[in-house]
Amino acid sequence: MSESTPTVQFLTVEGEFAPSGPAEEYASYLEGLTSEDLRAFYRHMVVIRRFDHEGTNLQRQGQMALWVPSHGQEAAQVGSASAAKPQDHVFPSYREHAVGLVRGIDVLSIVELLRGNTHGGWDPTDPTNGNFHGYTLVIGSHTLHATGYAMGLQRDGVVGTGDPEVDTAVISYFGDGATSQGDVSEAFVFSASSQTPNVFFLQNNQWAISVPVRVQSRTPLYLRSRGFGIPSVQIDGNDVLASFAVTAKHLDAARGGEGPQFIEALTYRIGAHTSSDDPTKYADPEEHAHWVARDPILRFEKYLRSLGEGDDFFAEVATEAEDFAADIRHRTLALTPPSPAIMFDNVYSEPHPVMQEQKLWLERYEASFEEEKA
Amino acid sequence: MSPIETPATVTSPDAPAAAAAATGVPASRVEELPMAKALNAGLRQALADDPKVLLMGEDIGPLGGVFRVTEGLQAEFGKDRVVDTPLAESGIIGTAIGLAMRGYRPVCEIQFDGFIYPGFDQITSQLAKLTNRGGGAFSMPVVIRVPYGGHIGAVEHHQESPEAYFAHTAGLRVVSPSTPNDAYWMIQEAIASNDPVMFFEPKSRYWPKGPVDFAGTAAPLHASRVVRTGTDVTLLAHGAMVSVLLQAAEIAAEEGISAEVVDLRSLSPVDYRPILDSVAKTGRLVVAQEAPGFVSLGSEIAATVAERAFYSLQAPVLRVSGFDTPFPPAKLETLYLPDADRVMEAVDRAMAY
Questions:
Q1: Predicted structure pTM score
Q2: Is A156 within 8 Å of chain B by CB?
């Protein structure tokens, strides 16, 4: 990056620690990172890439109707997710597999969702799931839920108290296509209006399925929020250190009562939009090659090696990733179809006569075939 | 299909008052109020009862809403609990969902029926489905108040009856009061429900006064109710159309036809037991609504009654609806909206079988 870049970057493409100008104000957020933290960044990135690869394989083998690849976006996700505190809440879109992993969900739930076993998969109210809310497939809708959640935090008095164990923020993830959705603009309006503790984290992966980001916006997307009165910053989303430091600082600001924050992480969707997509019909091979050369994992590996990390560590992580994928495969193949009862049981929270009636009817109807056999 | 399990049904229009009289509660607890003020009282009570209840909407603060339903509530409960929101319906519903996830019980006001569509996605794809998507892990106790319907001479988008869209959507409950007393009690029951409730307020009934029994008890939210007994034909409607049916029943009586009138009250789920019982008695059913008839609540009820009460029927179930046109310019609304004469035209046809 040139010196005049607006982009926060700590690691060059070659893995050298060389902060860009705008990175200076974030450098202090790296000081607390231990070598174990750095190894965890790497481990999470490698494991989720292997998981993602396994997801694609399982889809191709008919185990899922659909897979949503996250390949290429690991640094943006692992860095930002690692910056969130346990009490923070996370509202993902549907490609945030690495964020879910860092927050502690069993990512087999993502397989179950895309296999058609569930519409959700993990319980966001279960503390072991790291306040990682459900995937939202309607683009941008969840940015409003994140904003409303943050309005609730304000009313609960857990914003701006100065107590680092109490103050809480909400981070929501969305893509470049989502910035065109009215709901995202409305989330900016409501969040700015109430000065809610929201961090809006945009992963600009350059493509909304087949449509390039220049169709969504004629100006850099990090400028989008400023007209709403929300400060913003652009980062190299393939630099896990930039993603961590910048998110940490802006989450701090949000928790401290400084109002909403906006981060644009420049990254690239190396894989397809989904397993149903065909990027050969629209992707630019030169652009693809450019971004492959900026791979977030290779870059970070070079950096760790420059710090003295040796082959043993990388081999250990590779093995861990293989084991992780094997476990996912094993458990996917063991999945059983959902009970028909789930169609009816959770449509309402309170008893509902139509649900009760139709559930009973289906049970009797299905049982009638058993009687015929007998 | 097995018979529908229905909630307990209230058969007397004056049940709360009667209950009050029976328990010796002083008559002073019954006040004559317009529906707008009854709703205001119900919202005030809900805010006072539960600190998690909050109101959200456009102009609901110092102005008290364009219909003044929230008048005085912001002054009483503060800006954090009676929230003047930015002017964006999707934003109102979407942030209410987030607040509900945090344990709040938001009550959203949509300013007019025809302005609900910018919030349609958040209502149908998010609010209605989130409990199901989450496998029942969390509830969505959100109420959406919608002033709806005609008879007020207003411009386009201000007189519509969009309730069928929401009754068609699984995960929502849909109700509509027809009297000030029901409005007072039903809004509190809707707020207490752990499910999302679409609350359709018949805006032409905001101003006529009726008794509100503050010492009474609430009828079940999803119970339909016989409000006039009769033997020859059953008339069924919700919201403002109930008063039209009562007028028609008077006319019918003058013609020697005894009409029973049922106030639907709950549009989803529908409490069919009183309707089927009434049809078993009268053999005839006329369903009236302001909404266009095509793919409407009236159509659904007509089909269900035909399925379940076929041998009771002496005439086809007839629908009296708005035309299948956009709501017309206000100078034509009296031609568009069913009145007592249009209801009687259908009653006469039903009686001719």
A1: 0.95
A2: yes
